[in-house]
Amino acid sequence: MEDILSLQSTIGITFSNPDILEQALVHRSYLNENPSFRLGSNERLEFLGDSVLGLVAAEELYVRFPSFSEGQLTKLRAALVREETLSALARSVGLGQYLYLGNGEERSGGRDRPSILAAALEAVIGAVFLDKGFSECRDFTLRLMVKDIAGMLDQASVEDPKSRLQELSQERWQVAPTYRTISESGPDHAKEFTVEVLVGETALGQGSARTKQAAAKKAARVALQHLDKAEA
């Protein structure tokens, strides 16, 4: 098993109490075979880390996807904290090689078992929270998840271009885009609305549809295409 100092270097966190990090790596199968081991299992830290992870993910998604509904945000959070995602993140930092496993678990491939890796990563998050506090734990967690969140942003540009445009606008100009209806046409039962999106005083796109919301999405999509071309 690799040295605990190596793991601290890999994750970019220097613990005041390295025993907390080490405990995050102790699977209960190890204690079944080594009952006198000085540390307990990682299950309590897993419980804590699961809650911290959920909060960090919820806050980040709430900020990044301002026009998403509760149901949409819940779906995205579930995708971020599911076992498949967490085990992949654990593999990305080589967490499996640091685990304390019983012999039977070791022989059966426990170091690469998704459930064990996901639980260990949650335990590590719990350990960082206890040792460094929420702010540093939040930064650490978001560093791990940056690629997954970026992928969700790319998908959001298709599913909800308004959220993606707001993200880009805040990043580049520190202002949120605004939408205004510039025309309405057709009879009351079949109206068509044209909506324009602006950043500051600059119009970036227009869209037309049977509802203002759909027209605004089209306008945002046109704006994103315009910005992509400007970058090329």
Widest sheet: strand ordering? 1-2-3
What is the name of the CATH topology of the largest domain?
Answer: Ribonuclease iii, N-terminal Endonuclease Domain, Chain A
Helix and strand succession? HHHHHHHHHHEEEH
Q: In the CATH hierarchy, what is the superfamily of the largest domain?
A: Ribonuclease III domain
Strand content: 5-15%
Q: What assembly state would you assign to the polypeptide chains in this entry?
A: single chain
Helix content: 55-70%
The whole-number mean of residue pLDDT values reads 90
Largest sheet: 3 strands, antiparallel
| Number of β-strand runs | 3
CATH class of the largest domain: Mainly Alpha
Shape: elongated
Number of domains: 2
Description of the molecule:
- The protein folds into two domains: 4-159, Ribonuclease iii, N-terminal Endonuclease Domain, Chain A (Orthogonal Bundle), CATH 1.10.1520.10; 161-231, Double Stranded RNA Binding Domain.
- It has eleven helices and three strands, in the order ααααααααααβββα.
- It has helices spanning 4-11, 18-23, 28-33, 43-64, 70-81, 83-92, 103-107, 114-132, 134-159, 161-173, 212-231, and strands spanning 178-185, 192-199, 202-209.
- A three-stranded antiparallel beta sheet has the order 1-2-3, covered by helices on one side.
- Helix 4 (43-64) packs across helix 5 (70-81), helix 4 crosses helix 9 and helix 6 (83-92) packs across helix 8.
- The N and C termini lie far apart (47 Å).
